[in-house]
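BUG-104 | component: ligand-complex export | severity: low

The export step for zinc ion jobs runs without errors, but we want the raw record kept on the ticket for reference. Input record follows.
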Amino acid sequence: MPSLLTHADKMQFIDGILAKDSKVILTCKKHAYSYGTKKPPVFNCRDCTMVSFVGLMCNTPPEKRQETLEMLEYSVNKLIEADRKGELRKQKFLARPEVTISKE
Ligand SMILES: [Zn+2]
């Protein structure tokens, strides 16, 4: 399929994104969610999840990205496995975490 943009147009666009002072904000259009804001992503929305994952990778130092990606892949696979076994319960995700503080 022929591209509407020339190679020079694409390079100019990429240069604009990578310019020192430019800022790219990925957003889920359906839920107006963007990474790093106080508003939480919608749990079962693909676009919110994509924004979360890409945001996390962009904010991870390059030398740690492979490790972070493997951790995400492992976690997602565990969730899929748990869902297949019927072990996922929504209320567990919504419950407040218990936090205990102890002195060493
Ligand atoms: Zn969303």
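Assignee comment: Attached the raw record above. The chain is about 50% helix and 5% strand.
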